Amino acid sequence: MPITVREPFTGAWQTNQEISLDTALSNPTVFRCVSLISGDIAKTPLRLVHLDDDGIWTETSSPAFSPVLRKPNSYQTIGQFKETWMLSKLLYGNTYVLKARDQRGVVIALYVLDPTQVQVLVAPDGAVFYQLHRNDLAGVDQGGLAAPAKDIIHDRWNCAFHPLVGLSPLYACGGAATEGNLIQNASSEFFSKGGRPSGLLSAPTDVDQKTVDRLSATWHSLGPGKTAIVGFGMKYQDIGTSAVDSQLSEQLDGTVATIAGCFGVPISYVDSSKQPPYANSEATQLQYQSQCLQVHMTAMEDALDDGLALPTDLGTEFDTDALIWLDIATKTEAAQKAIGAGAMTPNEARFKYFGLGPVPGGDSCYLQQQMYSLEALSERDAMAPFTKPAPAPAAAPPTSSPSEEDVAAAVGALAEA
Fold first, then answer.
1. Given a cut of 60, is residue 8 above it in pLDDT?
2. pLDDT tens digit sequence for 388-398
3. 188-210 mean pLDDT
């Protein structure tokens, strides 16, 4: 059923002017933003990582947690699961995931629920429950069940009014989406009538009503592109506004920029006519990743870590390298600099930039021989020939040679001893 996003004014629904989800999603820019974000997160690999003794997160596997991250449920792949998760969050501001456990209490399946069929309940003591409706795919065979918070993963954003209620960007850009749809509908109707504004036929003299009706029927029956022949000295005069005069293109561009800004998507990703220079394409991708995707990826990682009750040395992590595709020249240059700077081993660079396997002797970092550490240079400077020579000791004062009597006395003393 259609879900109302918001009323632009009181009583708008009575005149069919409410902003609903289905009409907002029919806007091409909204559809592109939602599809782009959910598709990019769906294609980004989600890994189970382990914190090693060096404080580095490395990919690992676990018999308790890896199966559900590879196949979350019986009818979805992990990519489809992440896409459904993001579609619910982008369109409704909330994603509800039901957890299924085995006898050990380990989560063995995850089901994304219809956000319109879930209601958050808060008990007087602050306990949170989620009222569920029937969902055969998720194994909920009856409605009205209240599931405790420990059985639900609730991912939400833009919680402006309540910490348990998220808001979709459509709350802010729903008006722009509706305006864009109205502009496109008006343009379609305008060009279906030949691309000319409305007009009137005027005669210099009075014409009876019967003749007016006959000429009007003849005029409208001709259709666009036909030539009408009328008498009575009649002339045609435009009374409508052309597309150029009404600046429809500029107004439509304004709605595109507003919608893209609310979703955090660069304008070049939704309007191919506004591509950035080639040299700045990577910068645009990094901006899109940091300002749009990162908040959703981090929130999903945190929600899964908490929902699966992972130990402190385990976690989930998106491999964002899959989002950036470099050309051969750029990849080669990046690999060469990383190896030359000692930041990567050749095998690490081969795998990261080219997807190639290891080679013998490629597991060591290399640096040029003439490069020294500051400590080594300090020790070198403290050694000769860099140190200043010590001053020569002062010469001892000259002594007089002993006399023959002194020598004889000394020899005698030694003989007696």
1. no
2. 666 666 666 65
3. 65
- Same domain for 97 and 207, yes or no, is no
What is the pairing mode between strands 57-59 and 46-51?
Answer: antiparallel
Q: Please provide the size of the chain in residues.
A: 417
Residue 389, in any domain of the structure: no
The model's pLDDT over 151-177, given as tens digits with 9 standing for 90+, comes to: 999 999 999 999 999 999 998 888 888
| Amino acid letter, residue 199 | G
Poorest-pLDDT segment among 123-137, 188-202, 283-297, 326-340 = 188-202
Residues 303 and 177 placed together within one structural domain of the fold: yes
**15 part of a folded domain:** yes
The predicted model scores a pTM of 0.73
Radius of gyration of the CA atoms of the chain, in A: 40
